[in-house]
């Protein structure tokens, strides 16, 4: 029985047990559900959970463990003389797996077991048959390897049979156990709710564990990098010049400087415009204007950043070069920090304005009334009461926008170029950490040279940086959040 | 019209959208007098209060008709700046709403925006005298820089009163100022209202008949958007003309 079919059967069993559990619950009180501890559908769901969940868990664990066990078993069957010079046990083992898979294909095409046994005993014929089935093998099949493949197949088949038997057995046992519990006092509601709670805990731990996994993988790869390349040079060198032949300079400063410079310009554009837009929308705009403007502004947030990148490349870049950089004598570069920064700022405007708008709207009306009641004008109220009250939230919004700016890649590639440089001139091409991570890992790479592994160290630096910003944002928001409550 | 009237309202109508919230109200607010508005919830007393300093302007759907005069001038005249009017007609709200600023800045807010003081020393003086008038000075004089939101509920309400007093209003409107306070704080605020009467007129909306009887000289009874009866507090509570007033005071309608 295949895994897919088994899952379907389990699902069917669960559905059936739901119906049976529900019926038994109803029957136990002769149809008067007021005498039940839990509603009949809870009883049904409880029985269904006992039927489905332990069996599915068993199946999942089995499927994870079985291949490991079988492979270790079959690997032991490979003798040292089966391994050619220049080959390894793993390579031979992958041959075994390929042959096993190929034989499965042959079976699927109508070969019977007797024929397969014959083929296993005749490796040359097996190879031709496999080649017919478009499964190519590099070398001739060693008789021993063919035997190992056959053994592998048998073990997998037996394993799968036992899997089906034990899973279905557990499902039926769970079903019978739960069905016996069903009576008027069965606390099915508590069972179902406990299950839901476990489900929720599981969902939230997925996020946490993933973050942990990301951090660990970054840390390990960065560790390899620092084994190959001195950390001192990475953190203190002012040149970025990777050479794939070796002898590279991998100083982070030009990249970090580019990142900070571009993000700074982006925030200089986005924060004032976004904040003023938010203040207009929340304090001054009439309901009609607001209902039109806010969605339009938020459409900006939905544009993919690569489209902004095109806008930077085709429109903003030439404009800035022809109208500012050239007349001011600051260079002729089409891509510049300014271009990327301005366009990124435009991208962040809706982010800042929409978050700030929500925060400003959350300031209680009582505070505004208090200010108006003292004879303050609207603008005095906004400046001196509403804005200070909303400030912690606004700072949080700005810092979140900053983390986005730091992580942005596409706009920088198209707007600011890919040349790592330490310069103050905003009309010069520069690049950022994220762009270099991409370029170090694009193309044919092997993860053994410092030139590729540096990407992980860069990623880790960036991660720590944005994490710090987010923690700062959270801290500020938490610290001042309850001020007007 | 009463000779001593500070403010007078004639045939005032208020609409919230299509809802006719206040019908034909005529009231004279006397100078240096405490006037109480009583009536069941939703009877229009707070609505009328908010007409007196044009706070209803900040509600988009509200429309006010009729005549409200202060010192003989129509406050709904187009030449009147509602902002300046509100500086002269201060307001204290039902729920204490100190700004998220220091105690000092809360009180100094009005004087600062209206430019009432010439220097820091004068401002300090205004802040101190306002806090004294609100009977809060002794409790907060050592922590003027602490946030106003950190005070207790009763202290917060007195801070809001000090804040309103600091702009030297001519009329002070109070919208159920004691509804969120305990009896001790209520007693302090009531005492305060009595003292403030020597300087300006106070209009107080209250749900407590005892409070109206204790602090006010004049009482207006509102019911279902209309002014039922208005007169001396003593008369209203002992010999009301209108059967509805009597029913409300004795607790039969509400």
Report what the structure shows.
The complex is a heterodimer of chains A (about 475) and B (about 250). Chain A has about 475 residues and is an all-alpha fold. Chain A has two domains: about 5-185, no CATH class; about 235-485, Orthogonal Bundle (MetI-like fold). In chain A, about 75% of the residues lie in helices and about 0% in strands. Chain A is built from 17 helices and two strands. Chain A has helices at about 5-30, 40-75, 90-110, 115-120, 125-130, 145-180, 190-230, 230-235, 255-285, 285-300, 305-325, 335-360, 365-375, 380-405, 410-415, 435-440, 450-480, and strands spanning about 240, 250. In chain A, strands 1-2 form a two-stranded antiparallel ribbon. The longest helix of chain A is centred in the middle third of the chain and has 41 residues, at about 190-230. The two termini of chain A are about 60 Å apart. The mean pLDDT of chain A is about 85. Chain B is of the alpha/beta class. Chain B has a domain at about 5-95 and about 170-250: 3-Layer(aba) Sandwich (Rossmann fold). Chain B contains ten helices and ten strands. In chain B, strands 6-7-8-3-9-10 form a six-stranded mixed beta sheet, with helices on both faces. Chain B has a four-stranded antiparallel beta sheet with strand order 2-1-4-5, with helices on one face. Chain B is globular, with a radius of gyration of 18 Å. The model of chain B has no long low-confidence stretch (mean pLDDT about 90). Chains A and B meet through helix 13 and helix 14 of A and helix 2, strand 6, helix 3 and helix 6 of B.
């Amino acid at each position: 029985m295949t895994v897919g079919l088994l899952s379907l059967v389990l699902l069917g069993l669960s559905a059936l047990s739901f119906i049976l559990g529900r019926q038994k619950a109803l029957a136990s009180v002769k149809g008067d559900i007021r005498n039940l501890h839990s509603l009949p559908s809870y009883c049904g769901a409880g029985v269904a959970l006992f039927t489905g969940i332990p069996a599915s868990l068993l199946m999942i664990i089995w499927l994870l463990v079985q291949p490991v066990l079988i492979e270790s078993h079959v690997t032991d069957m490979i003798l040292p003389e089966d391994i050619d010079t220049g080959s390894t046990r793993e390579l031979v083992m992958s041959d075994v797996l390929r042959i096993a898979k190929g034989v499965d294909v042959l079976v699927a095409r109508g070969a019977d077991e007797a024929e397969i046994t014959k083929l296993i005993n005749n490796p040359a014929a097996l190879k031709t048959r496999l080649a017919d089935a478009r499964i190519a093998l590099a070398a001739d099949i060693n008789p021993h390897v063919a035997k190992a493949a056959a053994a592998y197949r048998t073990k997998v088949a037996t394993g799968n049979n036992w899997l089906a038997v034990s899973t279905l057995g557990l499902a039926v046992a769970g079903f019978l156990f739960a069905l016996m519990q069903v009576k008027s006092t069965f606390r099915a509601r508590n069972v179902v709710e406990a299950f839901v709670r476990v489900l929720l805990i599981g969902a939230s731990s997925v996020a946490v564990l993933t973050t942990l996994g990301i951090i660990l993988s970054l840390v390990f790869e960065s560790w390899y990098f620092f084994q190959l390349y001195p950390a001192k040079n990475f953190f203190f060198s002012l040149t970025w010049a990777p050479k794939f032949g070796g002898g590279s300079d991998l100083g982070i400063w030009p990249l970090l400087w580019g990142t900070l410079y571009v993000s700074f310009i982006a925030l200089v554009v986005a924060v004032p415009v976004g904040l003023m837009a938010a203040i207009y929308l929340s304090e001054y705009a009439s309901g009609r204007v607001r209902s039109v403007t806010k969605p339009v502004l938020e459409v900006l947030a939905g544009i993919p950043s690569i489209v902004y990148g095109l806008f930077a490349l085709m429109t903003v870049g030439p404009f800035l070069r022809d109208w500012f950089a050239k007349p001011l004598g600051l260079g002729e570069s089409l891509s510049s920090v300014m271009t990327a920064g301005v366009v990124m700022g435009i991208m962040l405007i809706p982010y800042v304005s929409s978050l700030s708008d929500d925060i400003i709207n959350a300031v209680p009306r009582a505070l505004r009334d208090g200010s108006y009641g003292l004879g303050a004008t609207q603008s005095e109220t906004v400046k001196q009461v509403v804005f200070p009250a909303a400030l912690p939230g606004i700072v949080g919004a700005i810092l979140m926008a900053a983390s986005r700016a730091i992580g942005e890649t596409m706009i920088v590639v198209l707007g600011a170029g890919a040349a790592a440089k330490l310069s103050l001139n905003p009309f010069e091409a520069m690049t950022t950490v994220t762009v270099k991570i991409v370029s170090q890992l694009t193309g044919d790479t092997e993860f053994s040279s410092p030139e590729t592994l540096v990407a992980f160290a860069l990623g880790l630096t960036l991660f720590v940086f944005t994490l710090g910003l987010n923690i700062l944002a959270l801290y500020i928001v938490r610290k001042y959040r309850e001020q007007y409550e | 019209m009463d000779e001593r009237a500070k403010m007078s309202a004639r045939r005032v109508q208020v609409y919230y959208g299509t809802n006719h919230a206040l019908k034909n109200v005529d009231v004279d607010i006397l100078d240096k007098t405490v006037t109480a508005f009583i009536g069941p919830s939703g009877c229009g007393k707070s609505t009328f209060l908010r007409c007196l300093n044009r706070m209803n302007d900040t509600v988009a759907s509200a429309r006010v008709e009729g005549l409200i005069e202060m010192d003989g001038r129509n406050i709904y005249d187009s030449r009147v700046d509602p902002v300046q009017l509100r500086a002269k007609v201060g307001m204290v709200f039902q729920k204490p709403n100190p700004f998220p600023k220091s105690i000092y800045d809360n009180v100094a807010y009005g004087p600062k925006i209206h430019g009432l003081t010439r220097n820091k020393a004068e401002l300090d003086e205004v802040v101190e005298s306002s806090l004294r008038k609100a009977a809060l000075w002794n409790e907060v004089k050592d922590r003027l820089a602490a946030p106003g939101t950190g005070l207790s509920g009763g202290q917060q309400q007195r801070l809001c009163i000090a804040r309103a007093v600091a702009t030297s209003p001519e009329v002070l409107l109070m919208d159920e100022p004691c509804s969120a306070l305990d009896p001790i704080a209520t007693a302090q605020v009531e005492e305060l209202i009595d003292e403030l009467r020597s300087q300006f007129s106070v209009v107080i909306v209250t749900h407590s008949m005892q409070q109206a009887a204790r602090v006010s000289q004049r009482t207006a009874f509102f019911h279902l958007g209309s002014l039922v009866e208005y007169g001396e507090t003593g008369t209203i509570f002992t010999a009301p003309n209108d059967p509805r007033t009597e029913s409300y005071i004795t607790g039969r309608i509400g």
